[in-house]
Amino acid sequence: GLVSMATIILSSKKDLYGRKGMILAILSIGFIGCLVWGHHMFTVGMDHDSRAYFSAATMIIAIPTGMKIFSWLMTLYGLKLKKDDYLFYWVMGFIFMFTVGGMSGLV
């Protein structure tokens, strides 16, 4: 999406690092995301089996999400930073917030 495009523009590279992995990660997040809707229903009384399923599925979605973060960071690796490159700060801020938000949702 937008962050991937921003990292390509910022790094002046042709493609993202691990382009095929990024495509698979996006597709798998979309698929698994359809299966984990129940983890938002934590105030409703659910069976133990349902809670175990939704907890496991929520943790599994972290794998393709980690692949996305790794691809973004490896695309930016070796970047020659200019002083007024605000796009870099925006991308790094997004990656930081995305990581912290994901980790606080898993813990």
TrEMBL record:
Q: Does the keyword Ion transport apply?
A: no
Give the top-level enzyme category: translocase
Q: Name one Pfam family in it.
A: COX1
How does the record classify its membrane topology? Multi-pass membrane protein
Keyword Hydrolase on entry:
no
- The entry's keywords: Copper, Electron transport, Heme, Iron, Membrane, Metal-binding, Mitochondrion, Mitochondrion inner membrane, Respiratory chain, Translocase, Transmembrane, Transmembrane helix, Transport
Q: What is this protein called?
A: Cytochrome c oxidase subunit 1
Fetch the InterPro entries from UniProt. Cyt_c_oxase-like_su1_dom (IPR023616), Cyt_c_oxase-like_su1_sf (IPR036927), Cyt_C_Oxase_1 (IPR000883)
